[in-house]
Each structure stands twice: as C-alpha cells, then as structure tokens.
Amino acid sequence: MNQATKEQNIENDVDSEEHAQGTEIEVDEENLPSRAAAVHEQIRQEGEKELERDGLALFWSAVAAGLSISASMMAKGILHARLPESPERFFIENIGYTAGFIIVIMARQQLFTENTVTAVLPVMHKLTLKNSALLLRLWSWVLGGNLIGCACAALAFHLVPFFDADTDAAFRSISLEIMKKDPTAMFVSGIISGWLIATMVWMLPSAGAAKVWVIMLMTYLVAIADLTHIVVGSVEILYLVFTGAIPWQQFIWPFALPTLAGNIIGGTFIFALISHAQIRNDMSNQNKAKQQKRANNKQENQQKAQ
Asked: What CATH number does domain 26-286 carry, 1.10.10.10, 1.20.1080.10, 3.30.465.10, 1.10.150.120?
C-alpha cells in the first residue's frame, strides 16, 4: 500500500470510540443491553464501512442500483399491460414494484434511501465535522450515481424497442399518476416512504432467510400507498421527460426536490433519530457500568498490592 493510499484511508476513517481505541464495534447481543442495541450496532458497523469506501466504488455501485431499480417500473408496467382491467389489477401489478428493490438490496448495491439510516447512525453516534462531511460525501456520490443510472434506464426504455405499444402506454400511465400530486403531497408521501424504507433496513439484520419477504412487504406498502420514492420515481418521471410528455423542469419541481427532502426527513430525522435515541441510554448506562467495574477492579488490585 503506497503513501497516498494510506493517507486516503486515514482521511476516510470515521471518528468513533472504537477507532480511537483500536477495537471493533461490539455486535454480540449477549454483550449488549438489548436486542435493539445489537441491531443498532450491526447497522452502525455497516454504516461505517460505507462511509469509509472509495468514492468511485460508491458511485459505480450507485449507477448499478439506478439501472437495477428500473426493474420496478418494468415489472409493474408489464403486469399493468398484460392483466385485464379489474379492481384486483392494482394490487397484483404493484407486486412488480418490489422487483427492483429486491435486486438492489440483495445485490448489495448503493441505494440512496437505504443510506438515510445506515450511514447516518455512525454520525449520530459521534457527531463531528469529519463524520458529517463523510456522510455528505457518500450521499453525493450515491444520489448522483442513482440518478445517472435511472436516466440511462429511462432513456433506454424510450429509445430501444424492448416493449410493445401496450407496455409503453402502461409506463406512461403509471408515471403520469405520480405527476398528479402537488409538491406538498410529494413531500408528505416522501416522508412516509423514507420511514418505511428505513424500517425495512432496521428489520433486515434480524430477518435471516426471510430477507426477500421483508423487502417485498415494505416496498409493496410503498407501492399500494402510492408514495413517492426519489430513485424509483426518477426512472418514471425521466421516462416522461424523454418521451416529451412533460418538460424537464417538472422533474426538478414538483417531483425531485420535495420527494428527496421527504425521503431524507422520513429516513433520517424521524426513523434514525428515534431508533438511535431508544438505545442511547441503554448504551450509556452499560458504558458507565463497565467503567465503574474497571475502577473497582483497579482499586482492588491496588489494595492487594499494598
């Protein structure tokens, strides 16, 4: 490893008590005060790894995620076009919405809304300028990569004759439904969507072999509640832009800015903050107990030495 690489690794190191002490984050439930604390520490450990990753690695993984998430629009559109019109079609076609999320999350690709909780916990654990800068760096690479991947997928759906006329019409119909919302509705539904995705992230460490079902359940709720999601929605709205159905300015407003703000608030300032708060006192009390135990042991050793 050359000197430049070493300096880059040091620059990207997250500020934490474990790094300062040269130890690893404790994730064993038996050594932690609660199951919630164990889940929190597992996600914080994963978040530190993401914050410390190389920027280009994050970017290309995010581009891949933007391409992969287009499977949600593709699957939902195909089902919409193929199923006969009925009250049940809405609930069946929205199963297709979960496809992109399953691909992205199981392939460990970088999805922006997943990082609104995973990468935020290390920052909440130790709020410093360096950690905050690392979070903004990660968000910038991942969001930029996601949007580029989404744009490439949406452009391909428009230019390359992958689908028949009925499926193209379904893509257009599904996407136009989103644009019926005003900015306030985009923002509010984005908050709920961000909260649901963050809840899914919190559930995954305990899901075991049921991870796919957890992803399907939570993202299906996003779909049937007609909530806005900055990444999946970008594929749909950019498809409208490329087909000439709407001007490109409408991608920025009323869609992207309100939805992005809502997703961040729902995933970070509501879910991550509350989830961190619920275990903070537990961890603080445990640390105080350990310090007291060490102090007692030190005192006993000094008395024996005398």
From this structure: 1.20.1080.10
